[in-house]
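Entry 14. Structure prediction run on the chain below.
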Amino acid sequence: QVQLVESGGGLVQAGGSLRLSCAASGSISSINPMRWFRQAPGKQRELVAAITSGGSTNYADSVKGRFTISRDSAKNTLYLQMNSLKPEDTAVYYCNAGVKGSYPFWGQGTQVTVSS
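Output returned:
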């Protein structure tokens, strides 16, 4: 089992920045990849960014150039640095962990609200 706990959400003005964290615990040695999703009210959950154990990353087109995903293996923590935030980035952000091709582990989510 893997436990994921997100933090770092909050209220920020448009153009501002936030850094989300996702602390992993449990059977973390097999985790690969780790991903950030978000879900806005009335919308489907969407993939924001992903990172493999080797450091390869990919991003949704809507956040490319503004968001950066990273991981600190020593701290068992995943990060999402979000810059130049827009009101349309408002959502609950979730951390997700993959193991052997499935993605069963989710955090509880952290709210990000961007005011215009």
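Residues 36 and 95 are 5 Å apart (CA to CA).
Filed with the rest of this week's runs.
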